[in-house]
Structure formats: C-alpha cells, structure tokens
Amino acid sequence: MAISSGLSANAVPLSARCFNVLFRAAAICVLLAGLISANLAAQDYLITNDDSATNGVSFFTIGQGGSLDFAMEVQGPGLGIGGGLFGMSRIAAVNSGSTQCIFASESFTNDVFWIVPGSGFPGGSAAGSPSDDGSANGIGLAANSQYVYASFSSSSTIATFQVQSGCALAFLNDIPASGLNGGPIDGMAIHGSMMIATYADGSIESFSIGGGAPVPNGDKQFSTGSAGGYSYPNGIDITQDGHFAIFGDTSTADIVEVSDILSGKLTPTTVYRTQAGISSSNVLLSPDETILYISNTQGDVVSAAFFDKNTGAVSKGCTSRKIRGYVADWSYLGGLALQQITGNGGGIFVAEFGAPAGIAALNLTVKGASCTLRETKESPIPDYYSRGLLSIGRFPPRTF
Questions:
Q1: Please, are residues 234 and 250 in contact by the beta-carbon 8 Å criterion?
Q2: How many domains is the chain partitioned into structurally?
Q3: Which phi and psi angles does 295 have, rounded to 5°?
Q4: Of the residues 1, 8, 125, 293, which has the maximum number of CB atoms within 10 A of its CB?
Q5: What is the pTM of this model?
C-alpha cells in the first residue's frame, strides 16, 4: 500500500543538526558533530530514513530496556517523499569485516547516499540510470559488503551499485522488474547469492546475485495468499541458513506466508494467520529465529509470533495493546528494528507514520509457550526530522 504526507520539518535545537547553519557557526558545528559521532561509534544505535523535504538519517543511541536518546541527524544531499510502499526498506546497514556502511535512499531525487558509521557526515550519493525513478512510492534497499541493490518503484527497475572504499557507490546497471500483472517492484531481501522480491500485485520472484547484478531464477509466481485478491506479499525476511523466505502481507487480515527456498528457488507459499490485527506488511526475525516480529501496519498493534526455523512454521504468540497515539499522532505503523542483536531481540522498535513521526518501543518477555509484548513508558520517542517515517534500522545490524 502507498501512503504520503507533507514534507515540511519541525525545528529542533541547533545542536542536533549541523548542516544548515550560518558560516560563523560552522567551526562550532564541526566540533560538535565530531564529539557526537565519536560517541556514536562506541554505541548501538537506531537509524531512520527521515524521507522528508530536508532528507537525512537520524541517530538514536539504544539503552537498556528499549530506551532511545536522540544523538544527531546527518542530512543527505537529496530529497525524500514522505511516504510510499510499506515493504520497502529505505535504509540498509552493513557490518561485515572491514565494510561498515549505512545507506539511505532519497526517492524524490532518485539517489542513494552513504554514511561511514561514526563519521557524522554524509559521504556522497549515487544515482542509477536516467530512467530509474522511485518518486511515486519510494526506493527500497538491500545490501551486502560488495553490492547495494535499489528497487525503483515508478520505473519498476532494480539498480546494482558496487560498494567501494569509504562506502562510496558506483552504479553498474539496472534490470526491469515487475509482477505477473505488471505490479511495481516492492520489497527486497538478499541472502548469500539469492535475492527475493515482492511486487504490488501479489507476485513474488527470486534472482541469482552471485555475479553481482540480479539474474531471474525463472520462478516468478503468485503467492498462495494473494489468490483471493485481498492480500499481497510486501516485506520479506530470510532465515539464517537460507532455508525459508518469510513474507509479511498487506492485507485485510494478518497474513504471513513462508516459502521453502532450500533448492535455490521459490516454492508455493504456506499461509499462516496469527489472528492479531489488520495487515502485516513488515516482518523481522529475532536473532535466534524463535520469534517473528510483525508490524500490523494498517492497524494499531504489534505482534510477536513463534517461529520454527526447522520447519518454517509460524504459530500464535502475543500481541501488544493498542500503540499510543493512534489517529491522534500517527496513521500507520511501518518498519521494524531489533532492540538487541542476540537472543530473541528483547523487543522491537516500530516506525510511526506521523507528522512529526515517532518510534514506538516494545519489550518482549517469553515464558515457555507464551509471551507478552508491552510498550515502554517512554514510548513513543519523537523523530522531529521526519514527516512520514516508514523505514528504520539499527547499527550494528543483526548478523544475518
């Protein structure tokens, strides 16, 4: 589903942002950014693609029990659109060997910019071909230590960028990518030499990325859940061993679909219902793969389902109470980010699409075959720079 909002930004203290100041204050801002970024380098932090008229990435340090403290915003060179498709992750973090990078898309200006974690400054930006266009519903990202893949919603193309020294990106090529009924490219996820994509018409497809640029595997198909015409796969996650692909559906219900991909291709999906809420467009596995976090994007709750990594089965877990501020402060729930990168994640952060936007924090407690998911007292945490937050992440990211 596509959504949109206004693009203006609320003012915040000057110390929070150092990129639009008068010349006489520049030296102070450089010093301040250096002090803040040095602190960030030693912290776990939540990152957001603010996707606004003055686009950038906001950094929040992650504390105990799901607490967040705003640190700074690094402004990008381009512009966002403040909306788009739920399943597109507009921010990607890589922490692999010597490659430590954060990438964020800018849909209005059709580019991807990069940040070296701890630097406090944008490193630059790269565009695809002149025909690559994500201005209608966004640009999704998936990345590894060698390549960044960008899905352009308007042109329905996937562009490949090579990661170079200092996280710089070099455009290589793009390929057309649309669904069986012509639906635009939506979510993407990669694992090893495989990429999986969803389209906004109920179809899904996998690609081989062993050579860099995606090559279709010839398995494009409609998902099982989309057969009734009221549901289509959106967000994607893949298990650590590459055995299962998990799809969160944009739907009138709460549908999760799972495909066995051990053969290197998609197989017909199995549909699971958690009876939790309306729509389930974004999903995220816990680090130990026992919990599948589900953002009920067109409702007002977040779910934690139990997941069996050996069989791919999803079973009912727990659902939060109504997240604070629904309707009054925000309209939709968006992407997810883990509190921790070990165990069951300890809980989840959720993007709130509002103006300004917010970030909900929920703690998870598991006891045997039951669990509870509760919003923290400090939640939500405002993201003053965003007027339509859909994509969040964390650094360092989960290891798979």
A1: yes
A2: 1
A3: -95, 115
A4: 293
A5: 0.91
Phi (first) and psi of residue 376, to 5 degrees? -75, 160
DSSP state of 219: -
Those residues with Cβ within 8 angstroms of residue 329's Cβ, 6 or more apart along the chain or in another chain: 352, 354, 358, 380
- Report which of 96, 71, 108, 74 is spatially closest to residue 167, judged by C-alpha positions: 96
- Asked whether the CA dihedral 65, 284, 332, 16 is positive or negative, the reply is positive
User: Which residues have a Cβ under 8 Å from the Cβ of 307 and sit 6 or more positions away?
Assistant: 246, 285, 286, 289, 290, 291, 292, 313, 314, 315
Alpha-carbon distance of 314 to 355, in angstroms, equals 34
**Residue 400 is assigned to a structural domain of this protein:** no
What's the token pair of residue 340?
Answer: 């921790």
How far apart CA 73 and CA 258 sit, in angstroms, is 37
Residues 334-375: tens digit of each pLDDT: 999 999 999 999 999 999 999 999 999 999 999 999 999 999
Domain range for 26 is 2-395
Q: By percentage, how much of the chain surpasses pLDDT 90?
A: 83
